[in-house]
Design brief:
This protein is an alpha+beta fold. It has 13 helices and twelve strands. It has two domains: 181 residues, Sandwich (Jelly Rolls), CATH 2.60.120; 110 residues, Homeodomain-like (Arc Repressor Mutant, subunit A, Orthogonal Bundle). Strands 1, 2, 4, 7, 10, 11 and 12 form a seven-stranded mixed beta sheet that branches. A five-stranded mixed beta sheet has the order 6-5-8-3-9. One of its GO terms (molecular function) is DNA-binding transcription factor activity. Keywords: DNA-binding, Transcription, Transcription regulation.
Length: 312
């Protein structure tokens, strides 16, 4: 069976996250750094001090000790001690980091400490998550999940540059745990996003989503999913499309094709095996669905993946 049965766990597993944590930033006095645009997710938090986060198209945000932030496919942004500080490029400083640290100002006067990292995803399915994320999510230290997230950031900051056995593995796992908690915090807010992430908090629709992920090979019907959600078919179909953005059976097809893209990129199953694993009775039916969603045949997609090298 493909997947784990939990939509968040399934999506993150399918995204093949690659994490780069650090360097941490310690600073004193007036400072400002401009970061270039980048793909996917940047995540970080303040271990000590305060700063301004200035993102194009948004009001400047004041971050305080214990606050955690997540940036989704952001444009250029600035971190600064104040709005008056003149920013300089961050890239040269990051390139010159020593022992996992970037320092600004004298060490004896440091009053700011930031832990930050980047999480990249496999390109063939990155949109599963990045299309749902706003450019900026902030979880305040005083928020319900703020204390837990601040503890994770503090633990991550300690690991960076420590040169301890298993450090990269610990950093990778902590970063993924941090990502999940940030997604939970974001999805649990009143102004929830469209898509499967927000829909998980809707009892009926969430139950149907979990059922689909638990058995993707099952020949799901609208009637079955509506019964799981304890709604009529018409009410369920409307609620699902409202929260997820597509009709239930279209979501099922898209999720199956996401699994198929991953399996083909990794060359883990034959096309006939993959057809059965994703709920199709024949290879031709699977190939037709794949071509409609992806724009190429499964064989063409697999051959391109082989030519570009093994999937991470």
């Amino acid at each position: 069976m493909l997947g784990f049965g939990d939509p968040v766990a399934d999506a993150i597993s399918l995204l093949r996250p690659r994490t780069v944590i650090g360097p941490n930033l310690r600073a004193a006095g007036d400072w400002a750094l401009r970061f270039d645009p980048f793909l996917h997710v940047r995540i970080g938090g303040l271990v000590r001090g305060t700063c301004r986060l200035i993102l194009e198209g948004h009001e400047p945000a004041l971050l305080r000790e214990g606050d955690t932030f997540m940036l989704g496919n952001p444009p250029s942004y600035v971190l600064a001690s104040s709005l008056d500080a003149s920013p300089r490029p961050a890239a040269p400083l990051w390139a010159g980091a020593e022992d996992g640290l970037v320092r600004i100002g004298p060490a004896s006067e440091e009053d700011f400490y930031l832990c930050v990292g980047h999480i990249g995803f496999a390109e063939e399915n990155a949109a599963l998550l990045t299309d749902l994320l706003p450019p900026l999510v902030i979880v305040r230290a005083a928020d319900p999940q703020g204390t837990r997230l601040a503890q994770l950031i503090d633990h991550l900051a300690t690991e960076v540059g420590a040169a301890a056995a298993g450090g990269p593995l610990v950093q990778n796992h902590l970063a993924q745990i941090l990502l999940v908690h940030m997604l939970r915090a974001h999805a649990g807010r009143t102004d929830r996003p469209a898509g499967w992430l927000g829909a998980l908090n809707e009892d009926g629709v969430g139950a149907a989503l979990r059922a689909v992920h638990a058995d993707v090979a099952h020949s799901w019907s609208l009637k079955e999913l509506a019964e799981i959600s304890h709604m009529s078919r018409s009410v369920f179909a409307r609620a699902f499309k409202t929260h997820v953005g597509v009709p239930p059976l279209e979501y099922l097809i898209q999720w199956r094709m996401s699994l198929a893209r991953d399996a083909l990129a990794r060359d883990t199953l034959s096309i006939s095996e993959l057809a059965r694993a994703t709920g199709y009775r024949s290879e031709s039916a699977f190939s037709t669905a794949f071509r409609r969603v992806v724009g190429s045949s499964p064989a063409q997609f697999r051959n391109r993946a082989r030519q570009s090298g093994p999937a991470r």
